Amino acid sequence: MTLYRIGELAKVAGVSERTIDYYTKLGLIVPESRTEKNYRLYSYETSARLVRINLLKQEKYTLEEIKEKLDKWNMGTEEEQVSDKLTHLELHMLQLEKEVRELSPIIEQMKPGQARRMLTQLLPQGAAVIEALKLLLNHGPLM
């Protein structure tokens, strides 16, 4: 198993060393071991945990809520974790579908050039998601 010092982990996970120190103090991440000179060593799994933390932060969870979620995920089986995530995604999709339905009449009333300009201001991934949602709403589920 490869172990990383703080600086190496920071590069792999795309966060600052200070963030790693802070998350360690909060108990969000835990070092695997220490070197003879007392440097903390972290596993590759810690970088995946840092990615999860960042995703949850983007969803506006507090660090305390994130810690609770991570602790809950660690206690559950892999199947429960997947089920929880799929449920979360399904709820998120329902919310997006509702928002697309609300926007559709407004977009249809716009001039074609206006609608195109709005779509070009989105990130490519965002535009792709919107198109996929429109397909789902107009043609029903693919399965």
From TrEMBL:
Key words of the record: DNA-binding
Annotated ranges, domain HTH merR-type: 3-72
SMART domains tied to this protein: HTH_MERR (SM00422)
Gene Ontology MF annotations: DNA binding; DNA-binding transcription factor activity
InterPro entries for the chain: DNA-bd_dom_put_sf (IPR009061), MerR-type_HTH_dom (IPR000551), MerR_fam (IPR047057)
Any matching Pfam family: MerR_1
The protein, known as: Transcriptional regulator
